[in-house]
Every structure is written in C-alpha cells, then in structure tokens.
Amino acid sequence: MTPRARLIDIVAALAERYPIPSLPADPFQLILWENIGYLVDDERRRRLFDAFEREVGLDPRAILSADPKHLLRLAQAGGMRPETRVERWRAITHIVLESDDFSATVRGLPLKAARALLKRFPTIGDPGADKILLLSGIAATPALESNGLRVLARLGCFAEGASYDRSYKAGVAVLTREGATDGAWLATAFHVLREHGKALCRRGEPNCVVCPLDAVCWHIAVRTL
C-alpha cells in the first residue's frame, strides 16, 4: 500500500466514525469563531458564537457600534480575560473594515498575500491562517490542528521536530508531499484527524485499545506534541 493510499484509507476510516462539524465558511466569521472564547470546547464555542450572532450580529459595523457593556457580558461567558477578548473583537472589525468587502479582498489576493493578511488578526498564526484558507474555500491549503498533528506523528507519518512550528511544517508537508490538492478532502482530513486526537488519540491518555487505526499505528505515543 502506498503512503498516499494509506493516508486516504486512514482519513476514510476516521470519516466513518466522526461527523464533520458545521463551521462558518466566511473568512471574517471564521476569524471571529477562533476568537469567541478562550480554551473552550466545540459545543461551548458554538453556543458562544450563536449568542454573539443573535445579540450583536456578524456585521463588522454592528460590532463596533455595540454597547461595550453588552460585548463585555458576552465575552465573560467565554472564559478568562474578557476585556482582552472585547479588544480583539474590535481589532478584528477594524482590520476587516479596511476594505469594502473583506471576503472578496482576501479571496482575490495571491496565496502568500492572503496568508499574510490573515496573520494580522489576533491569535491567527500560520496554522490558523491555513485553516481559514482551507475551510473558507479560498485555497486547498493543507492545514492541521494540534490534535490532528499529534495523530499523524503517532502514526509515523513524520518525525516530530524540536518545536511545535517544525512539527507543524512537517505534518503539513506530509499532506503536500502526497499530492493532496482536493480542498474537500483536505477539509475532511483536518476535521477527522482533529476529532480523533480529541476523542481517542489524546495527548496524555491515548485509548489505543479501541482505536480503529490500531493496526497501522506505530504506537509512538511515548513522545507527544
């Protein structure tokens, strides 16, 4: 079995187990989604995002004109440092309003420039920019979240680097090297690898006994990301 076929089979097996979550497809909304709470699980993030949409709206001008006390109350539901979160929401909207149509602007840029623009936003580094480019359909850019990266490392798809940044680049290179240019497949891979890392291939206590990938895993859980 070739490495590419093996990875396809891995993603297919995980896709049968984990449903694909419903996330915003608009780049601005994805940036807000990332900044809506601090270290919150997916269910809580969805509740926070829906409450924000319901009570404030997803128009940048509506966010800037919203009552600061109202924004602070919403931010308090999202965990630590709510004042900082409100500042980030406002910073996000200011950057978005630099263009008449942010979505069209970022979609019209060359890939390198689009990534650089996205990295101007609070908390968005290379992994976050890759995720937004992929999930918004702007570019078929391989992306991984920390849980998905850990799964690929434990499967032996790459050797962990001395830093998270090096490991991330190595993990993304696995997808790039194997010719994955299908945006829909890459998005599925992003989601199911992430879900598997959260559910079974956990950082501290991987549950290998019931893992559907046990037969092909290298069992290198001793070293974790």
CATH class of the largest domain: Mainly Alpha
The proportion of residues in beta strands is under 5%
Helix tally equals: 12
Average predicted local confidence, pLDDT: 90
Q: How many strands appear in the DSSP assignment?
A: 0
- Looking at the structure, the CATH topology of the largest domain is Endonuclease III, domain 1
Domain unit count? 2
Sketch the major β-sheet: none
Protein traits:
mainly alpha; disordered C terminus; Endonuclease Iii, domain 2; Endonuclease III, domain 1; 58% helix; 12 helices; 225 residues; single chain
3D structure, described in words:
The chain has 225 residues and is mainly α. The protein folds into 2 domains: 3-20 and 142-210, Orthogonal Bundle (Endonuclease Iii, domain 2); 27-135, Hypothetical protein, domain 2 (Endonuclease III, domain 1, Orthogonal Bundle), CATH 1.10.340. It is 58% helix and 0% strand. The chain is built from 12 helices and no strands. Helix 2 crosses helix 9 (126-135) and helix 5 (68-76) packs across helix 6 (82-96). The protein is globular, with a radius of gyration of 18 Å. Residues 220-225 have low confidence and may be disordered.
Short description:
This protein has 225 residues and is an all-alpha fold. 58% of the residues lie in helices and 0% in strands.
Summarize the SSE layout with pairings.
Elements: H1 3-15, H2 27-34, H3 42-55, H4 60-65, H5 68-76, H6 82-96, H7 102-108, H8 111-118, H9 126-135, H10 146-154, H11 164-177, H12 183-199
